[in-house]
Amino acid sequence: MLRDPTVHRLAILAGTTIAAFALTAPAHAEPQPLAAVDLAESYVLSATDSTLNTYAGGATAHLNRNAEGVTDARVECSHFINLLTTQAWANIDTGTIVDLVDGPDAGTFSNAGEWHDAIVDGRSTNDTPGNDNTVALVQRPQWMDPSGEVLVRRGDILAIKHPAGNSTSGHMGLVQSVVPISETADDHDSSQSSYAQFRVRITDSAGSPHSDDTRSAYPAGDRDGIGTGDIRVLVDPVTRQPVAWKFTMSTGATMRTEDIAVGTLIGGDN
Hints:
The protein has helices at residues 35-45, 77-88, 97-102, 112-121, and strands at residues 9-12, 19-22, 53-54, 62-65, 71-74, 134-139, 157-161, 170-181, 196-206, 225-235, 242-246, 259-268. By secondary structure, it is an alpha+beta fold.
């Protein structure tokens, strides 16, 4: 059973698109089932064949296990999240997370930028035609509270939106853990000296490994597809909002100052 009796319960106000959430869980408790992240971990553990685990997709995107029990994945980052969450939440009535972002008749996968916007908008399956169940994305309003306690949780969706004109819409993955790190400055960019920095372990699909990455075990030149690794996220200590990120933990990695949103999946009974 994927529903958690302690989750927030969603009420859609008649005649509006406003979602009201009543807290029924203790502060900082996990507000959503972790089915998606647990499923993601199981796929990564069985992704032992680098030729079957590929960063690609389009109309041929897929995520499954073959007859030998090995992960067979042909996905980009947004394909991975779309297929993963659809599988993990498939038993919640008729709605899917694909419908949540793009609607039931879109015919294409939602990209990372669209997921970012859906998180910011607080999109619900009840916002799309043909869905009467309750599955929603709720944005974490801040990365940490005033005391510095991290509010981002395992299972949250991290979505990064590239600026217009970029060759891709962004990047995204499922959060596994968030750990504050002591660096308050980057030797390669003094403008980062005021940012709080975090090691964020995510499960995603990528064209190359992050730091301490499961894909690094693959042969050189074939280290892509789904996996788990560490990225660096920089947070403004005043607004407590994520403001930049790096693809790896290396201080020499390119800092990307981009729109970053973190959302949690919430499901409830009608």
